[in-house]
Amino acid sequence: MTETSHAPSHALLSGRVRGAKPSATKEMTRLANQLKREGRSVITLSQGEPDFPTPRHVREAAKAAIDRNESRYTDVAGTLALREAVARKFERDNGLVYGVDQIQVGCGAKQLLYNALQATLDPGDEVVVPVPAWVSYPEMVRLAGGTPVIVRCGASTGFKLTAARLQGAITARTKWLMLNSPSNPSGAVYTRQELLALAQVLSRHPQVWVMADDVYEKIRYEDTPFATPAAVSPELAARTLTINGVSKAYAMTGWRVGFGAGPAELIKAMNLVQSQSTSHTSSISQAAAIAALDGPMDFLPGFLQAFRRRRDAVVARLNGIDGVACDLPPGAFYAFPSCQGLLGRRDESGQTIESDADLALYLLRVAGVAVVPGSAFELPGHFRVSYAASDAELDEAMARIGDACAQLR
To answer: Is there a contact between 105 and 264 (Cβ–Cβ < 8 Å)?
Structure first.
């Protein structure tokens, strides 16, 4: 009897799929879970997910929606009630005024990014991606048929794009600039002045739109007001898509609710894409998101206090490791240390740690700690640690990382 292969033929797959990579954060988490199933003690710091429970009033709103049997299809763009809540959020928090026809709700902020790229890119179109950047940005551009233009922004600029580097990256084929503030993986936060400098460059290139991913907006540790491109530059607002969601600030990663606002013509095109994919996100999750956006935020200071304490402890421990250097991130819940000083060293078997990917696999194998190599974020020589974990887990993880690095010669 002939055995049937379950692998797809290479000829079956599109060039877009063959040219894209799977999510490195998900892959490291998968490897960590595999080791756990084999009985290994593994601490997973490779995934950005708050360890706090979803606020009670949000959970209660979801239960009430279930009891009301709100279990039917909703509008593709999201329920009217949720889009109205999103409009209130943008006006209240960012000073941005949108009609409900300028708002889309999707299955997490990730789908909004994907919808926009699918709706706007043609083969050969370019998207400027300042790096380090979330692993999905370049791959989503490729899957939409576009070309990511990688602009490396290291520690010397606070991991942020400068006006000069933006000007140097723009061509006649540039269609989008993707900005993430606070940033995953670096925690960098753009100031109003920095965004104004970028807006001045973009004023000379009217064909370039801005995709502002603000999903970590409320996870910041400095008192300066939050700045987002559409609010900083009214001229730029007419070609800006501002994306946010409830996953991070409200500890709702699994509820899968993101939202975006921008020009009605763009949102209409994004709705067309979504109508042929997911249709909409969960009706119950949408009811919960209304409660999140309109409800009390008294839980947030506690979240931030815990994140700040963990950040300070993790960064101090990392800086205590010979060969590692880490700046204090002003936002999000990631540390992004340099591991340049460890490269070229050898492990106990004599194998050389030649790259950040080698180091990440070494830490998983020897220390039982899952981190993500910086090359996954397009900036080699670093690695990302999520400190969205318990104090006890982080303390143990830092001890293990320190011991494993001390064994390198």
So the answer is: no
Q: Would you give the DSSP letter of residue 9? A: P
Q: Which CATH number fits the domain that encloses residue 343?
A: 3.90.1150.10
pTM across the whole model: 0.93
- Return the percentage of the chain with pLDDT > 90, whole number: 89
Question: How many alpha carbons fall within 13 Å on the CB side of residue 84?
Answer: 5
- Could you give the C-alpha distances from 60 to 91, 112, 254, 283, 305, in angstroms and in order? 26, 26, 16, 15, 25
Q: What is the DSSP code string of 125-183?
A: -EEEEEES--THHHHHHHHTT-EEEEEE--GGGTT---HHHHHHH--TTEEEEEEESS-
Count of H helices and E strands in the chain?
15, 12
Does residue 392 sit in helix, strand or coil? helix
Any domain includes 6? no
Amino acid (1-letter code) at residue 318: L
- Count CB atoms within 10 A of the CB of residue 172: 7
Q: Which of 23-37, 182-196, 247-261 has the lowest mean pLDDT?
A: 23-37
Neighbour order of strands in the sheet with 147-152: 103-106, 258-261, 240-245, 209-213, 174-180, 126-131, 147-152
- What contacts 190, CB < 8 A, 6 or more positions away? 160, 179, 181, 227
pLDDT at 8: 62
Contact predicate 145/127, CB 8 Å: no
pLDDT band at 28 (very low <50, low <70, confident <90, very high): confident
Q: Look at the block and give the residue holding tokens 């739109």.
A: 209
pLDDT tens string 119-135? 999 999 999 999 999 99
Say which CATH number the domain at 162 has: 3.40.640.10
Same domain for 238 and 259, yes or no, is yes
For residues 186 and 119, membership in a common domain is answered with yes
Q: Which domain holds residue 134?
A: 68-294
